[in-house]
Specification:
47% of the residues lie in helices and 25% in strands. The two termini are 94 Å apart. The radius of gyration is 52 Å and the shape is elongated. Mean pLDDT is 85; it is low at 1-20 and 35-63. It has helices spanning 2-41, 120-136, 139-167, 173-198, 208-235, 240-267, 279-299, 346-349; strands spanning 52-57, 60-65, 68-69, 75-83, 86-90, 95-100, 107-108, 113-117, 302-304, 309-314, 321-322, 327-332, 337-341, 344-345, 357-362, 367-383, 386-395, 407-412. The chain has a six-stranded antiparallel β-barrel. The chain has a four-stranded antiparallel sheet with strand order 5-12-10-7, with no helix packed on it. It folds into four domains: 1-46; 60-84 and 336-412, Beta Barrel (Elongation Factor Tu (Ef-tu), domain 3); 86-118 and 301-334, RNA polymerase II/Efflux pump adaptor protein, barrel-sandwich hybrid domain (OB fold (Dihydrolipoamide Acetyltransferase, E2P)); 135-278, no CATH class. It has eight helices and 18 strands. The protein has 414 residues and is α+β, with helices and mostly antiparallel strands.
């Protein structure tokens, strides 16, 4: 019995030894295979990985590829589709929002009112200013301005005649002798007419003979006065005061006529000099400036679309208080799109030139478009420690179906 037990123990030990050797061979084979795999991964013939930068995002790190160069000299970079124009609209005045006329996705035209503050008091100011301008430019105002021009023209003509007569107030001895003779003749005619009139003293005032005598006496008196006035005018030169007064009156009449003409021209919509003057003209310009100022204040209570486009965002509702500069509406011109690179590194920017042809692959639509480089930013940005430059690319033909924010890959160069 003891011999049999020893035999069974020997068989158990042999089985354990066999299992140990099998495990050893399996482990050896695995270590050899792993060593060969590591050797293959470290082989010089392996492909070179694209350079990456690491962005720190909280406690995690993300590898972001930057641009790379192909063997043919072209540059490949990531990009994003952006609208040609984008406006972030905000009120410049504080106030309560009266209405918002759009929602995200609405198509609007340039000049459309997108939102408005409470502005009833300002509207009253605009209406009052408009009424003042209407009164100053009415048909009655134009007619009054035309009458003023006519009166000013007459005053100017009279003043000019006076100046001319003062400046020409001189005569030689022959002329003086002639004028004295005219006075003598006129005096004789006046004496005869006076005597003839006296002889009709017994007649009625309605008697034709007396009436004729009275008429002759009147005409003779006028002729004498004219002859004497002519003699006195030429025989007695004007004083310095007379000349100064005549010239001053003429200058005043000339200035009044010019201002009246400018005012009438302004009312009729004609062009006038920038330095034109006149009390009425100043009043009209002041009224128009007041209207413009009121209209500007009203416009500041309205958000108007600066261009045609699509409303991308609306951040506000009627009744809320809007602070100056608080962005309420974002408007994008999606009919005119561009592409801007996001990771074009400093190693590749020197290979890019304005006008370079570009292939644009938009992932969202799986289509490739043609374009060209139109702007190279002279200012660098940093992307996870790597220096990058933004390049703007214009589509050769505006594509359909694209939206701002779509990602793309661009290949710059032939």
């Amino acid at each position: 019995m003891k011999k049999t037990n020893f035999y069974r123990a020997d068989r158990r030990d042999s089985a354990l030894l066999s299992c140990s050797r099998s495990a050893y061979y399996i482990i050896t084979i695995l270590i050899t295979a792993f060593a060969l795999l590591l050797s293959a991964c470290g082989s010089p013939s392996a492909a070179t990985a694209i350079p990456t930068v690491v962005l720190d995002s909280g406690n995690q790190s993300t590898s972001v590829p930057v641009s790379s160069s192909d063997n043919d000299g072209s540059v490949v970079a990531s990009a994003i589709v952006v609208p040609l124009q984008e406006a972030q609209l905000a009120f410049s005045l504080p106030g309560s929002i009266k209405m918002i006329n759009v929602v995200a996705g609405d198509q609007v035209g340039a000049g459309d009112v997108l939102a408005e503050l409470d502005n009833d008091s300002i509207k009253l100011e605009v209406e009052a200013a408009q009424r003042t301008v209407r009164e100053l430019t009415s048909a009655a105002a134009v007619a009054a301005a035309e009458q003023t021009v006519a009166n000013s023209q007459k005053a100017y003509d009279d003043a000019k005649k006076k100046v001319d007569s003062v400046q020409n107030r001189h005569a030689d001895n022959v002329t003086i002798d002639y004028l004295e003779d005219q006075v003598t003749l006129a005096q004789n005619a006046l004496d005869r007419a006076r005597d003839a009139y006296k002889q009709t003293g017994g007649r009625s005032d309605r008697d034709p003979v007396r009436a004729q005598a009275a008429t002759n006496l009147y005409n003779a008196q006028r002729a004498y006065n004219t002859a004497l006035g002519n003699l006195n005018w030429y025989a007695n030169p004007p004083s310095a005061n007379d000349v100064a007064l005549a010239n001053a009156n003429f200058d005043a009449a000339s200035a009044a006529l010019q201002e009246a003409q400018w005012y009438l021209a302004e009312l009729q919509g004609e062009s006038i000099p920038s330095d034109a003057t006149g009390a009425q003209l100043a009043q009209l310009q002041q009224a128009r400036n007041g209207l413009q100022a009121a209209q500007d204040r009203l416009n500041q209570t309205r958000l108007m679309a600066p261009f045609s486009g699509i409303v991308g965002k609306v951040d506000g509702i009627a009744g809320e208080f809007a602070s100056p500069g608080q962005i309420l509406i974002v408007l994008s011109d999606t009919d005119h799109l561009q592409v801007k690179t996001t990771d074009l590194s400093e190693r590749d920017i020197t290979k890019v030139k304005i006008g370079d042809p570009t292939r644009i692959l938009v992932d969202a639509v799986s289509q490739e478009f043609e374009g060209k480089v139109i702007v190279i930013s002279p200012v660098a940005n940093t992307l996870g420690g790597d220096v990058v430059y933004e390049v703007t690319i214009a589509f050769t033909e505006q594509p359909e179906g694209l939206l701002g924010g779509m990602s793309a890959e661009v290949t710059i160069g032939d």
